[in-house]
């Protein structure tokens, strides 16, 4: 299980870095999404996985069981997902507005608009 999760995290970071190195703005957004999802998965896995255990406390229990999952990484990941969606929406809006204004889709095309 840990090997599969580690490989998934590595693939997400690798694909995200590959997309960031491209010159297209759309691939920049895709790269940011992939890296943010990889970081979320990394934080979630680093918090420890408890398979089959209750999330915090079992039903009708007065206190959490020793094998209960830690809710802090889950809360951090949930917050990061919400902030990440907001950031991606803002970046996509800026890229859309820039594309309508300049017609540039890559970094090289945007540099040509600066020299005019």
List keywords for this structure.
116 residues; mainly alpha
Short description:
This protein is an all-alpha fold and 116 residues long. Helices cover 72% and strands 0% of the residues.
What does this entry look like structurally?
The protein is mainly α. The protein has 4 helices and no strands. Helix 1 runs antiparallel to helix 2 and helix 2 runs antiparallel to helix 3. The radius of gyration is 20 Å and the shape is elongated. The N and C termini lie far apart (55 Å).
Alpha-carbon distance between the two ends: 55 Å
Order of secondary-structure elements: HHHH
Low-confidence stretches: none
Q: Please state the CA-atom Rg, rounded to the nearest Å.
A: 20 Å
Classification by helices and strands = mainly alpha
Number of H/I helices: 4
β-strand percent reads: under 5%
Principal-axis shape equals: elongated
Largest sheet: none
- The count of β-strands is 0
Helix content class: over 70%
Overall pLDDT confidence: 85
């Amino acid at each position: 299980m840990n090997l599969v999760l580690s490989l998934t995290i590595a693939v997400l970071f690798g694909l995200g870095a590959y997309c960031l190195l491209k010159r297209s703005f759309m691939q920049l957004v895709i790269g940011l999404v992939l890296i943010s999802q990889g970081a979320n998965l990394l934080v979630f896995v680093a918090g420890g996985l408890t398979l089959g255990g209750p999330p915090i406390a079992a039903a009708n229990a007065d206190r959490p069981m020793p094998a209960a999952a830690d809710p802090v990484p889950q809360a951090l990941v949930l917050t990061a997902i919400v902030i990440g969606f907001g950031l991606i929406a803002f970046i996509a809006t800026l890229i859309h507005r820039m594309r309508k204004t300049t017609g540039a889709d890559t970094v090289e095309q945007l540099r040509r608009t600066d020299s005019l």
